[in-house]
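Table S2 (text version). Query chain:
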Amino acid sequence: MKITPRELARVLYLAAKDLSKPAAEAVVKRFVNMARTRGWAPLLNEALIQLPAVADRVDGIEGVTVETARPQDGKIIGALLRAVGLEPERAVVTVKVVPELVSGARVRRTDLVLDLSGRRQLERLRRPSKDGA
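Corresponding structure-token output:
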């Protein structure tokens, strides 16, 4: 059976996430021994590298980048996150100030980009319309 480092990381996280520290340490030791006996030892380093991202995905936490033209407070950032369907508590947010946006904001999720920037609106106005008007 083929197994990927991501799958190994997921199995390890699910097996140990709700355990006390001593119990989790015992599970990790058994997991490493099992990986060695099954020939998966070369995958362990990559599995450990991927573990934080896998843990966030399992727990429903998503990484989001919020770009704004000017610095914004937490209420505005929270409203932008809710606009893309995320609760602020379930997101790891990176906020960047990008003056080139002119105004507004851009929110990037794994599978979605919400561009409410003034720059996008100006570019849209600059394009010729389809009906020739």
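Notes on Table S2: The chain has five helices and four strands. The radius of gyration is 22 Å.
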